[in-house]
Write a structure and sequence with these properties.
Elements (H helix, E strand, L loop, with lengths): L7 H13 L19 E2 L8 E5 L1 H4 L6 E9 L2 E4 L6 H4 L10 E4 L10 E9 L14 E5 L24 E6 L14 E7 L2 H7 L13 E5 L15 E4 L2 E8 L10 E5 H4 L13
Antiparallel strand pairs: 1-9, 2-3, 2-5, 3-4, 4-7, 5-6, 6-7, 8-9, 8-11, 9-10, 10-13, 11-12, 12-13
The protein binds 4-(aminomethyl)benzoic acid.
4-(aminomethyl)benzoic acid binds next to helix 1 and strand 12.
GO molecular function: peptidase activity
Organism: Streptomyces zhihengii
InterPro entries: Peptidase_S1_PA, Peptidase_S1_PA_chymotrypsin, Peptidase_S1A, Serine_Proteases_S1, Trypsin_dom, TRYPSIN_HIS, TRYPSIN_SER
Length: 281
């Protein structure tokens, strides 16, 4: 039996419950194949722009306190999902989370290496609607610069990488089983950009949520088995060497009828204050 379909506040509580309960989670095995679902291990060197968001105070010391993913979009800016910074996830206003950190350059969260960088400030688009979870994007300004070599370029509107059928890769330390089996080592899974219709059909509104193509991007594996899952939220979806999406939500993990919903980052960029590299070109 799978975890019930989740979205919005319900999905957030499922995330929180899953994260908080992760060492103790007892759930029936899911049919999922395994990432990130259906994934493979990757190194920090091959994907230097992936970061983990961490708060040990909130989520415990295991796995360096990881609770979401993120992506380096300038040496001092990490992009993540807005819902990762919500009080529902963090237990309080993000500004009060004193030990919120970005872990960079470390694929194995149980190992040393890389950097843990404090977050100086965060920004969520003023139009973010938590109910609709749209647009599910936030920026974190770091207290120290990361090497420029870790920056991933962000796709612009009209980028051909958004064309359905494009092969993309999603990265994260999230659930690899659909049953609360969180990864210590960074994983990636290959998915395809899917037509908006696939997600519009799967998520017409109601219990499974509503897909809004203006701010969301549909991707997955129509056969099932390759997908993001709980704990991957905020992490990057990459195609053609560019950031096209952020893990946002979906119904279950790795289901043929529950494609992954990602933040369409190109659509959100116009509302971002001029902090992104190459912005406005
Ligand atoms: C989550 O709750 C979540 N299968 C992220 C991605 C997906 C489902 C749930 C997509 O963080």
């Amino acid at each position: 039996m799978r975890r019930p379909s989740v979205r919005g506040p319900a999905r957030l509580s499922a995330l929180i419950a899953a994260v908080i309960a992760s060492p103790l989670v007892v759930a029936a095995p899911a049919a999922a194949d395994s990432v990130v679902i259906g994934g493979y291990e990757v190194s920090a060197e091959s994907s230097p722009w992936v970061v983990a968001l961490s708060s040990r105070d909130r989520f415990g010391a295991a796995r360096a306190g990881q609770f979401c993913g993120g992506v380096v979009v300038s040496p001092t800016t990490v992009m993540t999902a807005a819902h990762c910074l919500s009080p529902a996830v963090l237990g309080k206003d993000v500004r009060l989370v004193r030990d919120l950190r970005v872990v960079s350059g470390r694929a194995d969260l149980e190992a040393e290496g890389g950097q843990e960088v404090a977050v100086r400030s965060s920004w969520i688009p003023p139009e973010y609607d938590p109910e609709a979870n749209s647009p599910d994007m936030a920026l974190l300004t770091l207290s120290q610069a990361l090497p420029a070599s870790r920056v991933l370029p962000v796709a612009r509107a009209g980028d051909e990488a958004y064309t359905p059928g494009t092969e993309a890769v999603v990265y994260g330390w999230g659930d690899t089983t659909g049953a609360g089996g969180y990864a210590s080592k960074l994983r990636a899974a290959r998915v395809s950009v899917l037509p908006d219709e696939n997600c519009a059909t799967a998520y017409p509104g109601g219990a499974d949520g509503r897909y809004t193509p203006a701010t969301m991007l549909c991707a997955g594996d129509t056969a099932g088995g390759h997908d993001a899952c709980q704990g991957d939220s905020g992490g990057p979806l990459v195609a053609g060497g560019r950031l096209i999406g952020l893990v946002s939500w979906g119904s279950g993990c790795g289901r043929p009828d529950g494609p992954g919903v990602y933040t369409r980052v190109s659509a959100v960029l116009p509302s971002v204050p001029g902090v992104l590299p190459g912005g406005g070109d």
